[in-house]
Amino acid sequence: MNVVYADRDGNVFDHPDFVALGRNGDMVTDIMDDELIPLPEGATLVSLPDTRPIGIHAESGKMQVLPGEVNAVGALMPQGFTRLLLPGYAKSDKTKVLPLFGYTAVVWKEGQFFVAAHASDDPEPWNPRNCDPDELEVKVGGLLKQYDGNRLYQHLSNCALEYECLTASNTFLGRLEGAVPVSFSCNAGCFGCISEQPEDSGFPAPQTRMNFKPTVDEVVQVMLEHLKTPDAIISFGQGCEGEPSTQAPTIIEAMRRVRQQTSNGFININTNAGLTDHIRGIVDAGLDLMRVSTISALDDHYNAYYKPRGYTLRNVEKSLRYAADKGVLTSINYLIFPGVTDREEEVEAMIEFVRRTDLKLIQLRNLNIDPESYLNLIPKAQGELLGMKQMIEIYEQELPGVVLGSYTHIPAALKRRNDLQQQ
Hints:
12 helices; alpha+beta; globular; 13-stranded antiparallel β-sheet; single chain
């Protein structure tokens, strides 16, 4: 398998004289054949600025940096795929940080590109090609006209058309999981926040956070429009907002008004779940699904990344347990990173966390971060590095009743409940 690299103009090549390597955290490692899958549809190859690719010279057998003015290349994976290794690279300028994306090792083999990744879910529902840009533009124009003055639709139109956010696009297309952002503030200071970064962070946020508080009427309009489809999901908590539960009164009133008018679809919240009292109110208002973002079940790691304000990981656990006891389908948005998530101590702690909270689904999400910045931020490894592939196998064995996936799934029991309510 050959190293893949990019020239200064961004053109991508393979180098027949160098065998590709990957990285598991800060450890450069061989890439095994059973860790590779063909580059999936919807993946994007990107040049990693200020880096140099590392490979094994085929003739000398020594590991070295590729010669010339070239950059390492990584793949950005679509929904449904979990990366197993980072690209093999060294930074040519250690003061520079990579943009906030999830870089996956890519190689050239047997006449095509392969990536170090695992197919963890069906990628088809979230394949970008299923979002026709012409249709989307028409739908955006139609709803902006129909709900003239609704600032949420105006905000989401920018997310859909400029950022090409599929969840925002779904809101206009009336399908799958649609977005209803509500919060401009947050009770955490996530190191890798994609909507708000300190000026001195070194990496700008790739999205713009909403800067207004929507009214209940605006929220209800978006929810009712999307829930016209029986199996649709409408979700609070998007990448363009802060923590949705900080606006619990708005959410609770909107949910109550919506459920007075329709029992269609499912109401979801994507949350850090730190505000347990607020989460309880939202659950009691008729929540169907709750996805909680986490990066670890260990306090020191969690706190280093999330920088929680006024809550702890224990509050998160209480929120999950309360929701599960009330019949809400609970899941975690598990931000994963090769060389960290597969640490022995991380795996052991997460298994116990899942069991205590009665989670039904683990959504494996590739963490978008500069690797060096993240590894310098968090505690050092205490146990063995198991490897991402083995980590997934351990979860499948130890948590047989938990689905490992990539996005929110509606279980048959909830669908049957909604069908009965429609009768």
